[in-house]
Amino acid sequence: MAMESLKTIIIDNYDSYTFNLLQLWDTKDLHNVVVIRNDQFEWEYFQEHVLPYFDNIIISPGPGRPENPKDLGLVGPLLEFQRRELAHDRVALPMFGICLGFQAIGWTFGAKVSHAARVVHGRLSLINILEDARTRNGDSPYGDILDDIPTNIWATRYHSLVVDPKSLPECLQVTATCWEDDADILALRNTPPRLDKALSDSNENSLRNDSVHMKPPTNHQYTEGCEASLPYTTLMAFRHKVHPIYGVQFHPESICTEYGRKMIDNFHNITEQWKRNVQYQSFAHQLPEHISQLSVVSLTGLNPSSSLPPPPQDFNTNYALVAEKIWNGSDGSLDTQSLFKMLQQQPGASQSIAFLDSARQSSPYCHYSFLSVNNAFTMTYSTLHHETRISSPDNNSKSRSTSIYTLPPQQKILSYVSSFLQHFTHVPVQGIKSLPRNLNFRGGFIGYIGYEMKRETLEGYITPIKQRCACTEHETETISPSSLGCCQCTLEPDLALHFVDKFLAINVKEGSIYAICIVNQDQQRQNLLDDRADVLVGHTLEHAQGWLQSLKRNMYSISKAKISKSLSPPKILCKKDAWHHNEMATAEEALETSNRFSPSQIFTPDVDRSQYIPAIEEAIRLIGEGETYEVCLTTHFRRNFGVLSPTSLIELYFSHLRRRNPSPFSAFLSFPATGLTVLSSSPERFMRVNAQGIVEMKPIKGTTARVRDCCCSEHVAGERECKRLRQQRDKARAQDLWSDVKERGENLMIVDLVRNDLAHVCIPNTVTVPKLMHVESYETVHQLVSTVRGKQRSDADPIQTLAGCFPPGSMTGAPKLRTVEILDELEGHINRGVYSGCVGYFSIGTADNERGQCTSDFSVVIRTAVVNARKEVSIGAGGAITFLSKPDAEWNEVVLKTESVVPSPSVRSFIASNRSKSAPSSPLL
């Protein structure tokens, strides 16, 4: 019997790692794999109409306990059914349980599940596969899933509960254990960190896997470094002595576990042998379509996305892209702020601003900044009311009109965005032979997707009653600060997107500038959703040509200032040079000269230290109970400034935020229809989909301040010796970050979560990790950054791909659904709003790239200030809580992250009164 004819059902216990199992199959074999949720069917229906089609069962990891029927769903009655069948010598399908699945099998057969003496999440252990278990098969004619695997392998563990080996029933045999030691720490001490000094991705389309080959420590190393090790072992794997039932406590699907694919292959081989022995015949040789469609995510359309059919040609004939290189950048002049002011002085300019700013010139992640000061239309959306607002300029007027309507209950706003952009694929490019390959935004949507969009993207999530809005009158409101008082949904929409059809693309490395304009050759109006939202997209060819000529004339008249001057890091001198200059102080001085910012103005947290510390403690308790692995707890700091003009916000962005935190994913977004402005300096990419259909995510978890101050001793050593000491201590900090168990655990948990998310929207076995926990060094910090990539599926586009992975796992924790529900409670059901969401673009597709399809690039909203129509400034901050977290240290990190955005005396005065004594001296940016 051919292996690919085996039919496997995976029961997902709402874990954030289940879909990583699919990466252990070849693509050609996935058509016979179905993944269902544990509450997708009632047991009786599942037993009669679903289970008979399959040859074996995999029970996934998940949060909770096996004793809790809600945590297991139909897994509970399934295991009891299997146990009864075996007790009466009847046929029961082969099973493989992982983590919670492992515990559930043990508990069903009579073992006890208890709290682990050492809670382990995102940590590697050496698994000891017992040799005597390999040779003693009992009465079973089958092998083991651990056959043909070395005696000691590294494996990732995520668990707070354990199966008590002393309570193991006679029918289950132990096959693997692990010592509760510090083997991973000792191995990392002898493994050099992966340093990305140039911060370069050598091949942005690479789908290779990175790996850290850690050598197990020697006995001598154990004796020197394991004083804190616990002198006992933990049960890691068992099997039924007679029947093909197996379980492992560790996670074979994790990126850091060795031989995970071999375990799946062994399970398939065992199933084949079992089918021959018992002459088992399932209902069908191949899964029928009605069974395949039961999968949470269809696994049938797994062709590469390059096979997407072209869009209807009647749309493409209407539009073209006019582009021209209007500045060659050879002299390095024309700073971004001057360009900003120049565009605002152009005819028709408004405060409807879309600026995606690659403010860090040395970064390889973004080569271009994109700037528009007048957009075709703006779309905002409220998830609670399904309310969409479309704002567009009135003809021959600087004012904007707004249409308001409600989406049908089953329609989702991102689905509309997806369908709208399908009108703009394979758009021809005019005026230039081709645009640069790395100029990925060609016009389209720029804006943000707020954290509360999880209500429409996170499967299984139900909006709590405490978050629902009772407002019934805001549909008729005119947008103004006074009329926004009754509804937070309107004050800070869950989604806000500008449609940009005329903009500048600035190459931040070369200084060259392209002017790009979408031309509507027929000037045909396209309706948005219904007749009340009628907007004009694109410009006449005459308008585009006039705009280009005007830009070129003005380019040579504006003042020229070096971009690099405002972005270069401050020089660090030793004590003997009596250096007193500080660039950050200069930025603060600029703020304090304005009467808008005075030392008496204080940002107030939604949750202060006395409330935040108990929330951290409760998160740690829930982790210990197995309810979650990692909780990204946050809060907001707020201040109402009364008067903040659009001009002052632009000055604040350029003179302070951009200067203090130059980032490849900075942004300034202004939405006049709502009075909302977003000022962001995020360093973290959430998701990019490039022209080749490669999806990339770059989670950041793990940060430490760099050694940047003078390192002279009491006696002045001189500049050369000071520099040597500084570099030596800075390198040591990078090594400490690399080998820090807590930081690595946070990063690995999110990497595995991101891989799981991408497996929903990519071809599963193309999901890889080209960079795993590399140390990236910025001006002020070292960070642990990983890169995860996959090949987009044929039935997904960039908008659907983003929706399938939203909200960002680095802002929730894992497992995502259960943790988001926990966060709702811990954060008092206060909306996060823009913070924790993402900012970026969905680009139209043009005919000069190989696929002609839409592309996208979004960052995670961190290090960001949001200003609403009431002139209230809010800054979100938080941190990942694990079982190893120290509450005081976590709170200190929150307030210091806030200071990194607004380091004025106002925040410092608050920090001085709320920081615990153990606060570090340098901000963790």
Automatic annotation (TrEMBL):
Annotated catalysed reactions: chorismate + L-glutamine = 4-amino-4-deoxychorismate + L-glutamate
Domain Anthranilate synthase component I N-terminal: 343-456
Example GO BP: tetrahydrofolate biosynthetic process
CDD domains documented for this protein: GATase1_Anthranilate_Synthase
Top-level division of the source organism's lineage: Eukaryota
GO cellular component terms, A-Z: cytoplasm
Record's keyword annotation contains Transferase: yes
Region ranges (Disordered): 197-222
Key words of the record: Folate biosynthesis, Glutamine amidotransferase, Transferase
Transmembrane parts of this sequence: none
Name of the protein in question: aminodeoxychorismate synthase
Organism per entry: Bifiguratus adelaidae
